[in-house]
Write a structure and sequence with these properties.
Helix content is about 35%, strand content about 20%. By secondary structure, the protein is an alpha/beta fold. It has 8 helices and 9 strands. Helix 5 crosses helix 6. Catalyzes the phosphorylation of hydroxymethylpyrimidine phosphate (HMP-P) to HMP-PP, and of HMP to HMP-P.
């Protein structure tokens, strides 16, 4: 019996902490087989983003076409895309191959942890117009949610919920906004789906600056969706919000958050940079450390 198969369409990040490298490690840690289509190349370290290079749109499209036509994909995760042209190419590929891509999770990456923009303003606009209507789960952080909507940053859980509902109205079956920017002892993520709203709380861990948590969270959700109960590998997808899928989704998101928390906790003593400091990676090897 083959494992669940997940495609990531994301940036290659040279230090391996985020992007498709984090995605592929997450898939493996959670028992899924990972395939990839590279959208852009970033020269990045724990301390800074040196440069970003979105790939030609036709090259990105060729990769997706090849994988979708050959592999039995159970879920797809989309991350940083870099340019409006690449967003348009990915949206076109999704529309053509929708039945072959399984459930789709979009992590609308716009700015790196270092504060460097990872997509043009035109690209960010194209994300909202072209990709949001095509995906099952959207996983922005608070800043990304505000930018997609053209609104100020939320300042309360209720405002996060309102923005999640506004994003859901643009097409995604469910929206998870991570609330790490709100002050407080707990981090509260807001999950909006057809069955209602769930507030997911976790104790804030201020000990170390981590990069790749968003990539890992969305990848973990995609990996878990690939094995969702009742999933038809032939490609006949039930809608999120139907036939108990919401209960499955809440469980999946909670499980993905636990994986991220454990991977963060178990990387606290890692120092991979020769210079020390900076943004460290998560420990995606936790499922192997037994």
């Amino acid at each position: 019996m083959r494992p669940p198969l997940v495609l990531t369409i994301a940036a290659s990040e040279s230090d391996g902490a985020a992007g498709l490298q984090a995605d592929l490690k997450t898939f493996t840690a959670l028992g899924a087989y990972g395939a990839s289509a590279v959208s852009m190349v970033t020269t990045v370290t724990a301390h800074q983003v040196h440069d970003t290079h979105p790939l030609p749109a036709d090259v990105v499209r060729e990769q997706i076409d090849a994988v979708a036509e050959d592999l039995r994909i159970d879920a797809t995760k989309i991350g940083a895309l870099g340019s409006a042209a690449v967003v348009e190419a990915v949206a076109g590929a999704v529309r053509e191959h929708r039945a072959r891509l399984g459930r789709i999770v979009l992590d609308p990456v716009m700015v790196s942890a270092h504060g460097t923009p990872l997509i043009s303003a035109e690209g960010a606009s194209a994300l909202g117009q072209q990709l949001l209507p095509l995906v099952d789960v959207l996983t922005p952080n608070m800043a990304e949610a505000a930018q997609l909507l053209g609104r100020p940053l939320a300042t309360s859980i209720e405002e996060i919920r309102e923005q999640a509902l506004a994003l859901q109205a643009l097409g995604p079956g469910a929206v998870l906004i991570t609330g790490g920017r709100l002050e407080g002892e707990d981090v509260v993520d807001v999950l909006v789906h057809a069955g209602g709203t769930d507030l997911l709380r976790a104790r804030r861990d201020p000990r170390r600056r981590i990069r790749g948590a968003g990539s890992t969270l969305s990848a973990a959700i995609a990996a878990q969706l690939a094995r969702i109960a009742g999933f038809d590998r032939a490609g006949q997808l039930g809608e999120i919000g139907k036939a108990g899928a919401d209960d499955d989704l809440v469980t999946i998101v909670a499980s993905a958050r636990e994986f991220v928390a454990s991977a963060t906790e178990n990387a606290q003593d890692w120092t991979l940079s020769r210079r020390g400091g900076g943004y460290g990676p998560l420990n995606h090897l936790i499922t192997l450390d037994t």
